[in-house]
């Protein structure tokens, strides 16, 4: 699946991933390939990304919104 993480300043990440863990309003949640469509708000915390090369990357955000649709995740982060 494709992940884009965008902040007001720049695009932080754009690439193919196998797993993403987000800091949600009700706790952490993980999105995997073929996940159902979802829109959710995010709190401040860490976004953990596992790329298709099996590398882990971490991004700290101060809240935002996620949309997952047809194996494409767009994160608008603060």
Write up this protein.
The chain is an all-beta fold and 78 residues long. The chain has a single domain (2-77), classed as F0F1 ATP synthase delta/epsilon subunit, N-terminal (ATP Synthase, domain 1), CATH 2.60.15.10. Helix content is 0%, strand content 76%. The protein is built from no helices and six strands. It has strands spanning 2-6, 11-24, 27-32, 38-51, 56-69, 72-77. A five-stranded mixed barrel has the order 1-2-4-5-6. A hairpin with a 4-residue loop joins β4 (38-51) and β5. The radius of gyration is 11 Å and the shape is globular. The model has no long low-confidence stretch (mean pLDDT 95).
What's the story with the biggest beta sheet?
5 strands, mixed, barrel
CATH class placement = Mainly Beta
Q: What's the helix-strand series? A: EEEEEE
The neighbouring-strand order within the major sheet is: 1-2-4-5-6
Fill in the keyword field for this structure:
ATP Synthase, domain 1, single chain, five-stranded mixed β-barrel, mainly beta, 0% helix, 78 residues
